[in-house]
Amino acid sequence: MGGCVRSRWLTSRGVTRLQLARAVDGGVLTRVRAGVYAVPDADPELVEAAAHGGELCCTSALRRCGVWVLDPGKRLHVRVGRAGRVHPHPGCRCVTHRDGDDAAFGAVSVVHALIQTASCQGAEGFFAAFESAWRLGLLTSADRAEVRASLSARFRYLVDLARPDADSGLESLLRLRLWRLGISLQSQVFVNGVGRVDFLAAGVLIIEVDGRQNHDGRTLRHKDLVRDAEAAAQGFETLRFDYALVVFDWPRVERAILTRLSVLRACT
Ligand SMILES: [Zn+2]
Ligand SMILES: [Zn+2]
User: Fold this and answer.
1) How far away, in angstroms, is 51 Cα from ligand 2 center?
2) Boundaries of each DUF559 domain copy (predicted)?
3) How far is the CA of 105 from the centre of ligand 2 (A)?
4) Which of 51, 72, 119, 128 has the most other CB atoms within 10 Å of its CB?
5) Cα-to-centroid distance, 10 and ligand 2 (Å)
6) Ligand 2 centroid distance, CA of 82 (Å)
7) CA distance 124 to 130
């Protein structure tokens, strides 16, 4: 239950009101809201979800498991269930999900969270999260089949298109968007003298997506330049994109790739 509990769950198991009051006085439990308590070391996001009225879900539950999510994470996604009540609490900016029966406390499963993410965030947000969860080893083949079967028909192709080897959600987004333009990419290709590259298009265009949060100074920049020089020496061209370009400036990325591809194809 993520360290959160209803007082009636405790009292139904023999805990008296007096014991409960003493537990709060002694700091063994903290009061979340009327009738809901938490242990002091409970995950603050799970406590906030309980304060709102349910369990952490959707992108918030995925992020907690280390899954890459496109959603910036400024709002907590909370499942309260079909008939669940939403409770006011300080600083509430929660996104309320009402799917399923009554919500418990804690967090929904990764499978459940992915299904919610499709309807809440759309195709791209779902696809990036699904590939990330798969890469992290959080999805068995039965889980993937369950996700696919539970999605609305318009999203199912995304499960079929997904791979378990995307290094970051940015790679997932780029591959999906180019696939929609009819461009198929080879992923995680080993190029002699260069190493593994993120994508190879048309056999000659290397596309690298920098998923690092901060480009870690000169050393990595130098490494990238060495790779690009070596790739060029072998007849490849390299295009590099980062988070800001892929997420906020996609038309520029698309123009760059399409133009280079048309030039390269014209030369062959
Ligand atoms: Zn959501
Ligand atoms: Zn809230």
Assistant:
1) 7
2) 182-261
3) 14
4) 128
5) 24
6) 16
7) 10
How far away, in angstroms, is 52 Cα from ligand 2 center? 4
Cα–Cα distance between 105 and 79 in angstroms, integer?
Answer: 9
Give the domain ranges of the chain.
Answer: 43-160, 165-267
Give the C-alpha separation, 172 to 123, whole Å: 11
* Mean pLDDT of the 125-149 span: 98
pLDDT (tens digit per residue) in 71-87: 888 899 999 999 899 99
d(CA 156, CA 169): 19
159 contacts: CB under 8 Å, gap ≥ 6: 130, 144, 147, 148, 151
How far apart are the C-alpha atoms of 172 and 63, rounded to whole Å? Answer: 16
Quote the ligand 1 centre to 211 CA distance (angstroms): 23
- Segment holding 61, helix H or strand E: helix 58-64
